Amino acid sequence: MKRLIVGVGGMTNGGKSTLSKGLQQKISNSCIIAQDSYFKDESAIPVDNNGFKQYDMLDALEMDMMMRDVGSWQRDPNWFLRQRGLNTTQNNGTGVFVLIVEGFLIFNYRPLNEVFDKRYFMEIPYHVCKTRRSSRVYSPPDPPGYFDGHVWPMYLKNRQEMERTVSGIVFLDGLKSKEELLAAVNNDIHQEIEKLREKA
Ligand SMILES: Nc1ncnc2c1ncn2[C@@H]1O[C@H](COP(=O)(O)OP(=O)(O)O)[C@@H](O)[C@H]1O
Ligand SMILES: O=C(O)c1ccc[n+]([C@@H]2O[C@H](COP(=O)([O-])O)[C@@H](O)[C@H]2O)c1
Q1: How far is the CA of 192 from the centre of ligand 2 (A)?
Q2: How far is Cα 161 from Cα 108, in angstroms, rounded to an integer?
Q3: Whose atoms come closest to the Cα of 19: which ligand?
């Protein structure tokens, strides 16, 4: 059984979920694991001197649990898809199963970064990011000043660390239209799938 693991990373509100959901619809036998689903309970998140909850760091995430889920997909993608109520198409063993892992810190966690066959990172300028973020409601919601006081400085720090430690990332311009981004990445992934299919 052939497998491909694609990482869709990027800054907050860069368009990761939108792109990932589009890809899942276009790629048969694919599914998504989203890092957002692994945030620790609010009570476990430390607070800084300004009263800002420290959400934008790996410590805020249950990465062991996320790795366990990636591991279950790796062991048996067919079972994993069925567990999630997703259809699998019959492929006589020649098909390729694709896992899309999306999240804002997926390349900063080394054990996860190591599993990727392809890495994409969606970026948008500061002002666009701040505007998109301001219309999104998280749980708990961002307190006043959170973007400039926590989210953006942590993004800069995490990104610097990622660039120091990870290579082979394809950077995507998140200002392009949703359709254009989906078409380009979908095309790229289908080429990877073809390469895998051709391999004995
Ligand atoms: N290419 C795009 N162009 C314009 N707006 C976009 C684009 N991609 C996503 N968005 C919008 O930006 C917001 C955040 O998108 P989302 O996919 O949830 O980001 P992320 O998962 O990276 O946080 C949503 O309102 C979404 O509709
Ligand atoms: O999902 C949660 O439990 C949650 C609670 C508080 C904040 N978040 C924010 O979620 C952001 C990452 O998700 P995203 O989709 O914006 O890339 C990150 O910037 C956090 O500040 C997320």
Answers
A1: 31
A2: 7
A3: 1
Query: Could you tell me the mean pLDDT of each successive run of 10 residues in the chain, 200 residues long?
Result: 96 98 97 98 97 98 98 97 86 78 98 98 98 97 98 98 97 98 98 91
Number of neighbouring beta carbons within 10 Å of residue 190: 14
Question: At a CB cut-off of 8 Å and minimum separation 6, what does 157 contact?
Answer: none
Per-residue pLDDT, 91:
58
pLDDT the model gives residue 95:
85
Full-model pTM: 0.97
ipTM value > 0.85: yes
What Rg, from alpha-carbon coordinates, does the chain have?
17
- Give the angle 44-149-173 at the CA atoms, nearest 5°: 100
CATH number, domain at 144? 3.40.50.300
Quick one: CA dihedral 164, 149, 111, 173, positive or negative?
Answer: negative
Do the beta carbons of residue 175 and residue 124 sit within 8 Å?
A: yes
- What domain range includes position 150? 2-198
The structural domain count of the chain equals: 1
Atom 14, ligand 1: residue with shortest CA distance:
13
